[in-house]
């Protein structure tokens, strides 16, 4: 079975897409949100990051040519944004988790 034919993978990709749409629709108004709205936005970002991390790990473990191609596209995109191509994407994911925790803490402290 192809990587992308898996019902689990399809469900995760749909959820990632839905989370991205929701986040993109509100990210430009983040500074105007209430504290509760900002926390909710960060929670959606955390959930998105968690899903992306899981899918990336599955891509890394898959022998499917389409999965390998998607993984390479992700790596290429990260390199275009300045990530060292030798850098482990898991480090990027961990750093993003830390950043979101820092953001949440700052927002909660400023209440």
Explain this structure to me?
The chain has helices at residues 7-26, 35-61, 65-80, 89-109. It starts with 6 loop residues before the first helix and ends with a helix. The chain has four helices and no strands. The chain has 111 residues and is an all-alpha fold. The model has no long low-confidence stretch (mean pLDDT 92). Helices cover 76% and strands 0% of the residues.
Give a quick precis of the structure.
The protein is mainly alpha-helical. The protein has helices spanning 7-26, 35-61, 65-80, 89-109.
Report the structural category. Answer: mainly alpha
The separation of the N and C termini measures: 50 Å
Report the portion of residues in β strands.
Answer: under 5%
User: For the CA atoms, what is the radius of gyration?
Assistant: 16 Å
Oligomeric state of this protein: single chain
Mean pLDDT: 92
Query: Which of globular, elongated, flat, extended, rod-shaped describes the shape?
Result: globular
Low-confidence stretches: none
- Report the count of strand segments: 0
How large is the count of helical segments?
4
Series of secondary-structure elements, N-terminal to C-terminal:
HHHH
Q: What percent of the residues sit in helical stretches (DSSP H or I)?
A: over 70%
User: What kind of sheet is the major sheet?
Assistant: none
